Amino acid sequence: MKKLIKNAQAIVTCDEKDTVYRDADILIDGQEIIEIGKNLSPDGADEVIDAKNKFVYPGLVNTHHHFFQTFVRNTVKVDYPNMTVPQWLDHIYPVFKLINQDVIYYSSLTAMADLLKHGCTTAFDHQYCYTTNSGKETVDRQMEAAELLGIRYTAGRGTNTLPRSEGSTMPEEMLETTDEFIKDCQRIIETYHDPKKFSKRQIVVAPCQPMNCYKDTFVESIKLARSENVHLHTHLGEGENEVIQQRWGIRSLDWCEKIDFVGEDVWIAHGWELQDDELDRLAGYKTGISHCPAPAVLGGFPILNFNKLLDKGVLVSLGCDGSATNDSSNLLDSLRMAYLMQAFYSKERGGCVQPYELLKMATINGAKTLGRTDIGSLEKGKAADLFMIDTSNLEFTGMWHDPANLLARGGVTGPTWMTMVGGDVVSKEGHLVGIDEEKLAYEGEKVCTNVLRNHCDAF
Fold match between 2-58+383-428 and 60-369? Predict the structure, then answer.
């Protein structure tokens, strides 16, 4: 099916030349963009979308999240500020250990809906919550949710294997063995991982963090991921170094290097604890960092120096992080927050990174992080993953002149006018297309109450 997006006021491509088209069109065939330019003929198009007064952007790519945490949002009793990461984990895990498959399904729907409505078309989720209640089929439920909403989904199959008696923060109800973990990773890779162009289902092997896993969990993860040609992910440089130094006598990145958990097929979440020489090493390995601004602000942690990261050549992408440390799955909001965080320190860092650079982190850099060349920018041969904002709304007056820098600088964080994944319109004017949101919201609230709120004094 061919679609023509006609008369767009501006098209910000995020391609290698940073091309911005004015008063132009996009021709789409199936999932693929086949032409961008002025006055494209509508002949042969099955549908014409009038994009008058619209700015068009590549779909955002979220590179770190925890969907299962969506149902512990707005929970003051286990708030993140004024705690170290290990302290916070001790407070929050008694809630997480109650989670079952229904919580996974409806919390994933909730997070995915938020992402889609705010321009995110490809989402990675780090699903490490495997409880005695949930069983092993949680990624299966997430794939079910992703298919319903139409988002492009990459599942990070995580785990925690080290018991509290040996120094972790994990309750017994959330532990797996390394063998259990690897066996299920193999199962979901065989069932869901699709490496083909325009794939909507991929798998990443993602042990949660060195602090809460046995060494062999990471070693076996590396063996499996590289034998199956899938990516690897974990938390690193977010406050665990003291624990790792006590346990192993070296810092976290040193530990990862010794077992070869580095490389172009690896990215880490957070990294605010990494030192200059460690950033140089990451750049050399082409190992990326997913920057998650919300937990850094909420926890009062160091803010990444983007100028330094860019100068060193570190691949930086953008993530929402889990809703327990964000309360939102709005990647546009994270984009705005990341820019303001950088601006706050701009004088001592030699000037602020331009807002457009942050947009590229949230689009083309996100695609590179996931190892994808078919998404992340608007150009011929790539997926028609995009979103539009309506500049005819009065609040955009005076900002039309610079669409590339508009989103982060202008604080555009509300629902998009339209979000499209692979040529399909999945969200329009703040509502999911073809989805009974009221019904799903009611069902999700019921699950949240019955499974979590009624059985935990954190609420």
Answer: no
CA–CA distance from 158 to each of 203, 218, 276, 343 (Å)?
11, 11, 28, 34
pLDDT digits (tens, 9 = 90+) for 130-142: 999 999 999 999 9
Q: Where exactly are the structural domains of the chain? A: 2-58+383-428, 60-369
How many Cβ atoms sit within 10 Å of the Cβ of residue 249? 9
**Left, alpha or beta for 138 (phi > 0: left; psi -120 to 50: alpha)?**
alpha
pTM value is 0.97
pLDDT at residue 172 tops 70: yes
Architecture of domain 2-58+383-428: Roll (2.30)
Quickly count: other Cβ atoms within 10 Å of residue 386's Cβ: 29
Instruction: Categorize the per-residue pLDDT at 93 as very low, low, confident or very high, splitting at 50, 70 and 90.
Output: confident
The pLDDT score that the predictor gives to residue 89 is 73
Parallel, antiparallel or unpaired: strands 288-291 and 266-270:
parallel
Q: E strand or H helix at 155, and its extent?
A: strand 152-157
Q: Which CATH superfamily is domain 60-369 in?
A: Metal-dependent hydrolases (3.20.20.140)
Asked whether the predicted pLDDT for residue 129 surpasses 70, the reply is: yes
Distinct helix (H) and strand (E) counts, the chain: 15, 17
